Structure formats: C-alpha cells, structure tokens
Amino acid sequence: MGRPYQPSLLRLLHGLTAFLVVGCWLSGLFVYSRYDGRWGRLPFVPGGSWIDLHGQVGFFLLPVGLAFTAYALTLGKARLRRATNSMALVALVLAVATGKLMQEDWLRDGELHHLVYSLHLVAWLVIGLAVLVHVAGSLQLGGWPLVMSMSNTSLREGDLPGDWPSQIRRYLKRKR
C-alpha cells in the first residue's frame, strides 16, 4: 500500500485550524486558571493579558474555522462519516460560536454565571477531548503514516493551490 496522500487544501485548512485551536485551548487554560479556577488552577500562570490573546487567536480562528467547516461539509464530506472527525468539527463550531457570544469583561468582573460562558467551558473541554479522540482515531485507522500525511508538503499534479477553484467547481457541478 502506498503512502497516504491528503489533498493540499485539506492539509492547509486543517493545519491552520489545528494551530489556532491549540493556541485558543492553551490561552483559554491560562484565562480559566487566572479568572475562574473553580475546578482547579494551574500552579503558575505567566503574566500577560491572556483574555486579549485568547480573543485575538479566536478572532483568527473564526474565518479559518469557517473555511475549514465549509471544506469539511463539501469536498471533505466523506471524511465526516468518521465519528472522530465529526466530533472535532462540532466541538470547533461550539467553541467558536460561544466564544463570539461572550463579553471579555465578564471574567475580569468575576461574572462567571453567564450561560454562554458555561457553554464555552463545555466547548473547551469537548474540543480538548475531541482532538485527543481524533488523533487516536487517525492512529488507529492509518497509524503514523496517516497522521504524518497531514503535514506532508509534497503536492501532486492537479492539487496545486491554483487547482483549488476547479476542484470546488467540479464538486458543485456534481451536486446539481
């Protein structure tokens, strides 16, 4: 069996999304530890405005996450049949949506009672679990070759960035 190959647009969107999700998750851990901590705190939280950093990373995650979700629901729809992929995508949507509904001053003012904040905490936990389950599922399905194929930088003919619009057009024509 040959080495797995993932479409370049998938690799780009998946990689950017993964990078930003990790940034949001870690900065969210620092925000939670500093301003909430009801269920435990980190022993040390580095100084800085973690709420602002968390919001800025989330700001960039919104358009990237939307593009990744659009890809997943169209060109990548077959991959959503795997529960681990669907779970991670649903967790991403929940985290971004609840994050956009929050007010950053709630935590600074000690207002921890808002439903949206509680849902955002749930999303934060679910996305952490979803990423672990997603990676474990990928390892189970195809092992390290499948996982490493997501970071492969080689491109096949017909899968260059200039080919992405035609890939999307072909998909849309099939759906008519």
Concise synopsis of the structure shown:
The chain has about 180 residues and is an all-alpha fold. It has helices spanning about 10-35, 50-75, 85-100, 105-110, 115-150, 165-175. The chain has one domain.
Structure description:
This protein has 176 residues and is an all-alpha fold. The protein has one domain (8-174). The protein is built from six helices and no strands. It has helices spanning 8-35, 50-73, 83-101, 105-108, 115-149, 164-174. The radius of gyration is 18 Å and the shape is elongated. The two termini are 34 Å apart. 20% of the residues are buried.
Give descriptors for this structure.
176 residues, mainly alpha, 6 helices, 69% helix, 0% strand
> Per DSSP, what share of the residues sits in E-state strands of 2 or more residues?
under 5%
Quaternary state of the chains: single chain
SSE succession: HHHHHH
Largest sheet: none
What radius of gyration results from the CA coordinates? Answer: 18 Å
Helical segment count:
6
Structural class: mainly alpha
The CA-CA distance between the termini, in Å, is 34 Å
Quantity of strands, as a count: 0
Which residue ranges are poorly predicted, with pLDDT under 50 across at least 5 consecutive positions? none
State the shape. elongated
Mean pLDDT: 92
- Whole-number tally of structural domains: 1
Helix proportion of residues, in percent?
A: 55-70%
